[in-house]
Write a structure and sequence with these properties.
Keywords: DNA-binding, Transcription, Transcription regulation. This is Lrp/AsnC family transcriptional regulator. It comes from Flexivirga alba. It holds the Pfam family AsnC_trans_reg. This protein has three domains: 50 residues, Arc Repressor Mutant, subunit A (Orthogonal Bundle), CATH 1.10.10; 192 residues, Alpha-Beta Plaits (2-Layer Sandwich), CATH 3.30.70.3460; 59 residues, Arc Repressor Mutant, subunit A, CATH 1.10.10.10. It starts with 8 loop residues before the first helix and ends in an 18-residue tail after the last strand. The radius of gyration is 20 Å and the shape is globular. α7 crosses α9. The strands form two sheets. The protein has an eight-stranded antiparallel beta barrel with strand order 2-4-3-10-7-9-8-5, surrounded by four helices. The protein is an alpha+beta fold.
């Protein structure tokens, strides 16, 4: 295990490189950091083994546009919050589960293949979990920024190609159905280890390495999948997470969302169907920075009003990763959000 304090400058530099290029070779990392490839790999393995860092694959912008994403505020009976959080964290459709202080006990990020499936999951699963007394759901209309864009050193990731709404199939022998099945299996494997080698992926899927390379490349270029190097927020000095619900006149909604994406602390910006119409999630170094961030937003868009704010007490799950009380990864629940929520007998309604 590593020291539970702030990470070293070497560790932070290594993470910064892999945030920009999550599958960068150790030779590339060496050129940027000055570490030898073996030393860089050793540092990374130590951090990853302790759950301080991990590379995962999350649904990309193309999937967010085509599928249904919702943000759900949950109120629980006294003493039931943690149990409810850990129960929902085992669901593939609940991508992120956070225990919060404020007007709600939990804040969920939920994904499903369509609105009907989302409704099925929320009404027949979430609303029936023992200990939940109230839920408030807002469906996302557009994702402007997600956690994959957040950087330790504030430098943006290079994008090789703009995302598209669908997958563009390269010439090959696989059928469309085979592509879909293989792509989903690849997404799950990359979600568990975004740096898994092509050889390992090829072995697990029993297809050629050339096919794996082609499909991974296509998933990334199409925007169906995005790789993200995640960190334990506490270990890198950003221990406070705030979730703000902002109300903005509809004529200024896009401007306000784009303004929020440019702020250093902000990790997620999404518009939603319902009021308040804008959700902003930020990582902060100190609790009092919440007011400073709100001031920055209002200074830029004076008509903006902060309607609600939640402070995250504990992130139980972040984009498929189960986290402990320090924010370190201890397990993973594959984000197979395209499945029927009740395919598993464990989720079948009573």
């Amino acid at each position: 295990m590593i020291d539970f304090g702030i990470l070293s400058e070497i560790d932070l530099a290594l993470i910064a490189v892999l945030q920009a290029e999550p599958r960068a070779s150790w030779a590339t990392v060496s050129r940027v950091t000055g570490l030898s490839p073996a030393t860089a790999a050793r540092h990374w393995e130590r951090l990853a083994a302790s759950g301080v860092v991990w590379v995962t694959a999350s649904p990309g912008e193309a999937v967010w546009s085509a599928h249904c994403v919702a943000y759900v505020e949950v109120t629980c009976t006294a003493g039931a919050t943690l149990e409810v959080a850990h129960t929902l964290a085992q669901d593939p459709h609940a991508l992120t589960v956070e225990v919060t202080a404020g007007s709600a006990d939990l804040f969920l990020t939920v994904a499903a293949v369509d609105l009907s499936t989302m409704s099925n999951y929320l009404l027949r699963r979430v609303d029936t979990v023992a200990g939940i007394t109230h839920t408030n759901t807002r469906i996302s209309t557009k994702l402007y920024k997600d956690g994959s864009h957040w950087r330790l050193d504030a430098r943006p990731r290079r994008r090789s190609a703009p995302p598209s709404a669908g997958l563009v199939t390269r010439p090959g022998r696989e059928s469309a159905a085979q592509h879909a099945d293989l792509d989903r299996k690849l997404s799950l494997l990359l979600g568990m280890d975004g740096r898994a080698s092509y050889a390992d992926l090829s072995h697990q899927l029993e297809v050629s390495e050339a096919t794996v390379r082609r499909r991974v490349d296509q998933l990334l270029r199409s925007g169906a999948v995005i790789l993200r190097t995640e960190v334990s927020a506490e270990r890198v000095g950003w221990p406070v997470s705030a979730i703000m619900s902002l109300d903005v006149p509809v004529t200024l909604l896009g401007e306000a969302a784009r303004t929020a994406t440019r702020l250093r602390q902000v990790r997620l910006v999404a518009t939603v169907a319902g009021r308040p119409s804008l959700i902003v999630v930020a990582w902060l170094k100190y609790l009092e920075e919440i007011h400073e961030l709100e001031g920055q937003l209002v200074d830029t868009v004076p008509q903006l009003q902060v309607q609600n704010r939640l402070t995250v007490l504990h992130t139980v799950k972040r984009m498929g990763r189960i986290l402990d009380e320090h924010g370190d990864a201890t397990g993973v629940v594959p984000m197979s959000h395209w499945q029927n929520p009740f395919e598993s007998a464990d989720l079948a309604p009573a």
